[in-house]
Design brief:
elongated, 81 residues, alpha+beta, 20% helix
Amino acid sequence: YDRQEITVDGRTAYYYHYRSEDPAAQRQGYWGQEVVYDVYVPHDGLILWMTVSISTNLKDEAPDQVIERMIESISIHSGSE
């Protein structure tokens, strides 16, 4: 569970992520692999906390790249906007 920083709508946010594998599920024909991100975005004294989870074939870094692009695309506005 490694902490890393990312920029979200011009703000420094941080996330933790991990990967897991289930060989028994893989033997039964399922992907049995998962990438999970816990993301924390500070904003006006509050924290947006979200968990992103993808179950997929983890042969490459594509799931991480997709999740990071999703996180970076977040746009935070105040209630009056």
